[in-house]
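Dear colleague,

Thank you for sharing your sequence with our group. We've completed the structure prediction you requested, and as agreed, I am returning the results in plain text so they can be pasted directly into your records. Please verify that the sequence below matches your submission; if there's any discrepancy, let me know and we will rerun it promptly.
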Amino acid sequence: MNLIFLGTGAGAPSRKRNVSGIVVRFDQSRETWLVDCGEGTQHQFLRAPVSAAQVTHVLLTHLHGDHVFGLPGFLSSRSLQGGSCTALTIVGPKGAEEFVTTTLRLSQTKLGYGLNFVELAKDGLAFDHPLARVECALLNHPVPCYGYAILLPDKPGRFNVEKAIADGILHGPHYGLLKQGLTITLADGRTVDGKAYIDPTVPGKKVVILGDTSACQAAVRLAEGADLLIHEATFSPADAKLAAVSGHSTTLDAVQTALAARVKALALTHISARYDDEKTSALLAEAKSLLVNTVLAEDLIQLSV
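Please find the predicted structure tokens below.
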């Protein structure tokens, strides 16, 4: 997966950071998803190496404005791209469909493609897709807010040609059967089990993108063992009281969640505009002292998993 951060700010856009939006692209196809769609997201698409027409799914974490106010404009502009746009699936908490349909109706906006809605009611499976299974968990925020775990399928182990040759099994049509894990009899009379020559299954990658949340066990459970956790970090640890009152996290909260979940890498996002470059650099250094594989996301950066 390749992730493009379209917006990494909190609450309102600033000169440096747009509000929330993350593109998820799947390497093996042109399939593209969008997680949240704050104001100005469609403009950020113009700066990113991705087309709005390629987006097939929009995953909304919650319905606060800095995460959804860009959606009506995005849907409308996407329609202007004509026949290249296919139906779009919008996943989110209860109220997502009403927000979208009401806005389109009152603005008399006609889309040239269909919309499908999946409204979440509980933790667990959000939806299944040929490319990935998506699980969700309700987080700790003043309005219903979800985190999403995107899980790629496991990859079958490769056929270990080197081991086969070392055992005197030379190249031939039987390799195809052995690659399937079948048991065959060789010309010299030996019976060999193909499974013995297949490397262990490679676990599929797991990326977890959290919506707004204060520290909670639901986030830890969802993020367990993730290759990448994208966690909001609105406040500095010095402003922990503000974070608690507003249902947000500090950079330290994010790191502690990542450590508890034993994730491989952490990306901090949803940064308050109150912190200048010097302060955010200090916050990142502090976070990296606890979890070295940590980045502080900037608009339009890309991360690959």
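Summary note from our side: The chain has a mean pLDDT of 95.

Kind regards,
the structure core
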